[in-house]
Design goal:
The protein has 338 residues and is an alpha/beta fold. The chain folds into two domains: 198 residues, Alkaline Phosphatase, subunit A (3-Layer(aba) Sandwich), CATH 3.40.720; 109 residues, Phosphopentomutase (Alpha-Beta Plaits, 2-Layer Sandwich). The strands form three sheets. Strands 2, 3, 4, 5, 6 and 7 form a six-stranded mixed sheet that branches. Strand 8, helix 6 and strand 9 form a beta-alpha-beta unit. The chain is globular, with a radius of gyration of 21 Å. The protein starts with 13 loop residues before the first strand and ends in a 17-residue tail after the last helix. The model has no long low-confidence stretch (mean pLDDT 95).
Length: 338
């Protein structure tokens, strides 16, 4: 596939590529690095499924329901394979992915969200009890529908370990209102956030951001995660769906840019790659896009360093914008922007 585009002679923003420095390529590592925390030692993966001892502990915590699945597999594939069996036999689906995750599937109406969340919290505690089990995220994966037409819902929740103090905490400590939209609260275990808007569609999450940006405010940081690029199109290797979602985002982006005040700063990037054209179904390690926009910028003809060496540079830019201390990693590009 070839994408042809003309270079804009009068760009409206600074653009570059940015590198993930962390020893992982997943949601948690990417977001933490953005806020100045580098993942030096990745959490364990379970490509061959979880050990029997861990499965036994989980089953006890799951009201003695038998666990089925226990392998590394696509979430939509395992739903098609075991979704009905879990309902018919009152069992629970547990699986993993090429990332460090333990994912628990339950039907919203048959198992119930309350039970699913309770099981996920218990699983997080069990996994955190031993370093060899300590996955980066335990994910509650609810689904709805009938056999042959099961669909995952936006009522998922991620349970991560409480992260180290980051730039997000520093912003909050220094009186900057912090707002998390999408998976942000789950990723940071609700830490460092004043207001939370949970997982939703990319379109709805952008609408929330536009609405907040349109209001009069000072000293406010809005952190938005658009999960459908990853979950619905990247992992599914759905090129046309990804393209359409990008077009929809572009429309919303114009509205967001128009809503910004003159001194607002907009930064667009990614926590990891997930190339829909690449073989497989997992995240891809690659240089990520970086776009930086503000109405107060006078000259965008200067070119940023390319590539930039760490996602922590984003956090440093945010920190310096608000006049707080930067992270120990990442670059400082604040004074370059004018």
């Amino acid at each position: 596939m070839k994408i042809l585009a003309k270079k804009n002679k009068q760009p409206l923003a600074y653009v570059s590529k940015i590198i993930v420095k962390s020893k992982a390529k997943d949601t948690l590592a990417g977001h933490l690095e953005m806020m100045g925390i580098e993942t030096v030692k990745p959490s364990p993966n379970f490509d061959d499924g979880f050990p029997d001892e861990l499965i036994n502990e989980l089953q006890k915590a799951f009201d003695n329901r038998q666990i089925i699945g226990n392998k590394s597999i696509s979430g939509t594939v395992i739903l098609a394979e075991l979704g009905q069996k879990a309902i018919d036999e009152n069992k629970i689906i547990v699986y993993t992915s090429p990332d460090s995750t333990l994912q628990i599937c339950g039907h919203e109406e048959k198992l119930g969200l309350e039970n699913l969340y309770r099981y996920a919290k218990a699983a997080r505690k069990i996994c955190s009890s031993r370093p060899e089990w300590n996955v980066a995220r335990v994910i509650a994966r609810p689904y709805i529908g009938e056999n042959g037409n099961f669909k995952r819902t936006f009522n998922r929740h991620d349970y991560a370990n409480i992260p180290p103090k980051s730039i997000l905490d520093s912003l909050q400590k220094n009186g900057i209102e912090t707002i998390g939209i999408g998976k942000i609260a789950d990723i940071f275990s609700n830490q460092g956030l004043d207001k939370i808007f949970g997982p939703n569609t990319d379109e709805n999450n952008m609408d929330i951001a536009i609405d907040i940006a349109s209001q009069e405010s000072e000293n406010q940081f809005i952190f938005v995660n658009l999960v459908e690029f990853d979950s619905s199109y990247g992992h599914r290797r759905d090129v046309m769906g990804y393209c359409q979602n990008l077009n929809n985002f572009d429309i919303k982006l114009a509205k967001l840019a128009n809503a910004l005040k003159d001194d607002d700063l907009l930064i667009i990037s990614s926590d990891h790659g997930n190339d829909p054209c690449f073989p497989g179904t997992n995240h891809t390690r690659e240089a990520l896009p970086l776009t930086i926009f503000s109405k107060k910028f006078k000259s965008k003809t200067k070119e940023l360093k390319n590539p930039i060496s760490s996602l922590a540079t984003i956090g440093n830019l945010i920190a310096k914008n608000f006049g707080i201390e930067m992270a120990e990693i990442g670059e400082d590009i604040f004074d370059f922007l004018d």
